[in-house]
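Subject: mismatched residue count in predicted assembly?

I count 797 residues in my input, but I want to confirm that the predicted structure covers every chain. Input:
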Amino acid sequence: MTVATNLLMDAGSRVPIDKPLRHHGTVHVIERRCKECEFCITFCPEEVLETSDHYTARGYRPARVKPGKAGDCIACRFCEDVCPEYAIYVEEDPP
Amino acid sequence: MHVDARGAAVTAHAGALTAIPPAMGDTASVGSHPYDHLLRSGALPHIWCPGCGIGTALGALIYGFEQAAIPKEKRVIVGGIGCSSRVVFYAKTDAYHTTHGRAIPFATGVKLANPSLNVVVFAGDGDLFAIGGNHFIHAARRNMDLLVVCINNFNYGMTGGQGGPTTPAGALSTTTPYGNAEFPFNLPDLASAAGATYVARWTTLDVRRLRTTFAEVLGRHGFRFVEVLAPCPVSFGKTNKIGSGAEEMEYYQGLEVLRSRVESTEIGKTDIELGKPIVVGRFVDRERETFRDRYVRVVAKARGLKS
Amino acid sequence: MTEAPNLILAPEWTRARTGTHFLSGDHACAEGAVYAGCRFFAGYPITPATEIAEHLAERLPELGGQYIQMEDEIASMAAILGASVAGAKSMTATSGPGFSLMMENLGLGYMMEVPAVVVDVQRGGPSTGLPTSVGQQDMMQARFGPHGDFTSIALSPQSPQETFGLTVHAFNVAERLRTPVLLMMDEVVGHMHERVVIPPPGELPLVTRPRPKVSPEEYRPYRPGPDLVPPMALAGEGYAVLFTGLTHDETGRAATTYEAQKALVPRLREKILKNREVYERVGLYKTEDATTLVVAYGITARSARRAVDLGRAKGLHLGLFRPISVWPFPVEKLTSYRNVTRIVVAEVNMGQVALEVERIAGAYAEVVRVGSAGGNVLAPETILEACTSMPGARP
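Triage response: the counts match. Full output below for your records.
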């Protein structure tokens, strides 16, 4: 660890090597568009999403981020790509 | 502003927020989807069933237009009749909803009258290969400069789930209640034999590869054909007990086999049969003069001869 | 790859064929199209219209235009609509069997309000019939061919010279009223050769479709102007137009409701009926003091004129009423002749336009049909006989 610390003299321009490189994102659901097809829920690699308890005006239970799992989104955007309704998208957090 | 059949106030502007009373718990409408300015988003949510794959395919096409940097005013989508052709009502491009099976000749006219346009035909398996089959093979034969996207959900969805030219042998539908007695087309084989210069097949689960494919082919010339296997949970999927949309996607996930290259001699191995592996990938990628390449020479010759 | 020019160009006058020619009706039609600015032709070979396609296969490339032979007439009709929405003046030409195939997409053209010219060089029918012989048997189909309620405009020339002029007129009407227009020729006019004078470029006025005057945000593709014609934006201009064959509202969006239908379909009819001065043309010969009128169009009008002369030589007050625009039928012009006791309708069919004349004039005049099963030009004597036969006599 001492060697690494010496190398990190100008730590501002380098990413610490002891922290994993991980993307993180915030999931947004446009509830009025969601039709409960569950593509996002089924195929999210981090299993961040689930079906809500409440219904939209159209009678669907929209997807939502599981309580407590918001930090697990890795901003892979698969939900955004696969959603047929344009009802979910991800805003990636800055590194 | 006027009121549509759902009683919702709609405008023709994409991106304008619609004045629908917020649904219970609709607090997550924190902003528009990244594609809202590329869609007629006042018309959303669209008409397709929960679990239908068409929306995914349209999103991939929009991604392709953006990645290939096709100028917005040059994008033209031509549809026929059917669920898949309804993309014209949601994509914010010049869009033409024509007659059943006739999108390809209509698109041919559009492209030849203004070759600077980027013309995409987007339709379903019945529209393109039953009633539209003749037009498909001739456009491929001519190597007409068109991208043809076929949403293959193995039945006629809009009209309630009848069998069609891509319904697998033995599969059930409203008009094949005892199991389909016919053999289906192998679409990559047909497209390749007719002269298409780019042929690929993906499922809507392969949305990443589908997006990349569109991004790649939208900037190219010639007759390009992309078959997209999409779930149809309300008709085909339900009738054949494949399940919901997500279950149908998982069904494809279990069956699909990715091949990055299929030789034309092996293209028969890309048949689709119930329960058997489904080969996806890019099957044909070749160079051939387009119709316009050759017609331009005709014009030059005519002018030279007559001057 | 050298870029061939885009077809939305002004006519290229350096290759105009100004002057006097000896042309068939088919060739005169093709030259009329060229003169009018047509730079897109999609068709399929069919007797007796093939010569139009062959002539344009040679002419359009030298003008930088597009000739394409499609795989069938259905594709031809679809292709000319597609070319038109992208800005090209476009045309197709066919005969009876092909005309039948074109019906669905012709209806699409009416519903989408797309300018185009469709030529039917009629031959004997029904079905394959008499491919090389004359007929005028598609006239009711010209009125009612596609399914649904619509109003068609159909023109009928009687000579190669008139074919030239009416083809130009057809394009002008199609552009002005944003509609397909039918040019109903017949095999004799199509194949006969006569003197045709092609005027210098610019002498005949040419019309192009009304264009939007507002920004894309404000534009509505089906919001009509005061003349009931909506301005037309082309593909590629940034208007993101939406055209559909479904019943639609002014934004172009599908609106499959009773209200939207009521707002759209009657307007499509009124658009045509209210603008008669744009297309209506009638040929009148010795009608001022006529007590018997002959109604005839196309090649039959040539015989009818001779019949009128023969009758006049015998002291009969005959006149020829020649609808050049057959649909919508020039009702008011015909019914303005109230001193007429008999109207003879002569056509190479078993009574089609006669149905219309019977409807509008039957109450005050005796309407007599002179027809044919097809394949012959009606002789002047036959028409004259119908003018002089006893009332109530069957031909």
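The beta strands of chain B are 2-3, 9-10, 75-79, 94-97, 118-124, 147-152, 198-203, 224-229, 256-259, 278-285. Marking this ticket as 'not a bug'.
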